[in-house]
Fold this sequence. Notes:
Blueprint: H1 2-16, H2 19-25, H3 30-49, H4 56-83, H5 96-117
Amino acid sequence: AINVLVLVPVCYGLYSDGERMKAVYGAETPARGILKAMYTSILVVSLALLPCIFIEETRDGARWMSTALFVVQIVYKFLTPATTTGGVPPGLPLNPAVLSNLAIALFHCITVGIFLANA
């Protein structure tokens, strides 16, 4: 659910190309287009998996597919401080996308731990 809550406004902002998004993610470039595709893919997969956790017959499969998605996100999100420069508004120590990535990665680590503990 956190992926959906975060990625709906992020994807909207990236596709609408607002000034706030430009300040954080930079101008529209091929790399930003790839980021939009990646975020959109994570959003679509998350939306597809979300109802599956409420259906007994699909719950276990959805849990393992979610775990795989979360592990990929954990890796790339923890890498962002080392791979991202710029886009730091005044008063913040890092780019806001980097800060949110670290927080979400930590949340996903806890979720994966709970999933594995109950496997």
